[in-house]
Amino acid sequence: MTYLLFCIGLVALFLGGEYLVRGASNIARHFNLSPMVIGLTIVGFGTSAPELLVSIQAAMAGQPAIAIGNVLGSNVANILLILGTSAAIAALMIPLRKVWRDLGVMVVATAALWIMLLDGSISRLDGVILLAGLAVFMGMAFFLGKEEPDLDAEPPSSMPISIAQTIGGLIVLVIGARLLVDSATEIARTFGVSEAVIGLTVVAVGTSLPELATSVIAAFRKQTEIAVGNVIGSNIFNIFSILGITALILPIPADPRFASADMPWVAGTALLLVLFAVLLKGIPRLAGVALLAIYAGYVALIMA
């Protein structure tokens, strides 16, 4: 039964991702927002919903290692696994002139989280600071994300249909992620895997599958700006929103290993994405394969 729920969750994720990308793209066009902005905000926030639910539930259940490991592992998986897979399907363009602020916010958020973890907990004050950062990021994204409408483009679906597609896709994504995470965690525990490792791998990958489904589908549809924006936005939301809200509800104790062993990976992958954007203006297909190889090495290392 556990394996059946795992498969159902996987199918639900990809169906939800298809409708989310379609609906969000149409909403962006109605408001003359660029696909990058809609990926950074609506899609990025929506696909981070599973991480939020899992982290809050884990913190309240007395499992802080899963709450923090979920976010750190998801941010690593977003860049190495998700962008790697998407780039292997279709080379991703990263328009630096559109995303330099957002890449900067991602790096600052990562650095702030690392500093917060050094004292062994994420306090309620830390949560307030993280949520303030989220408010600033959202304001920047919407006010600076307008673009001229393309008069020659095919008219988007009506707003009610677009909203229904987006909300429906999000609901299916969350349900699918919940089924997959629960079943995958149960399978992992039968092998005696620790909570920290479960959070960094099984739960992190499981809650990142909405991002994977959304970015892969966007890559197949040649909407690479949504694929890239989804990952950048998700990484920012994971830190600012998920840990911010969770810490505001309940301060989160942090295992020392997160600051010493795991944050270097989170920071390193964030800087790697910045280098791709600055030096290559995107992620070629061969680089996508290399990212997948690095992710395989990362998982092998922390599972050892």
From TrEMBL:
Any one cellular-component term (Gene Ontology): plasma membrane
One Pfam family recorded for the sequence: Na_Ca_ex
Keywords for the protein's UniProt record, in alphabetical order: Membrane, Transmembrane, Transmembrane helix
Main location: membrane
Transmembrane regions listed in the UniProt entry: 33-54, 66-93, 99-118, 125-143, 163-181, 226-250, 262-280, 286-303
Bilayer topology term: Multi-pass membrane protein
GO biological process terms, semicolon-separated: intracellular calcium ion homeostasis
Subcellular compartments: Membrane
Sodium/calcium exchanger membrane region domain mapped to chain residues: 3-142, 162-302
The keyword Disulfide bond is annotated on this UniProt entry: no
Name of the protein this chain belongs to: Calcium/sodium antiporter
Organism listed in the record: Pseudotabrizicola algicola
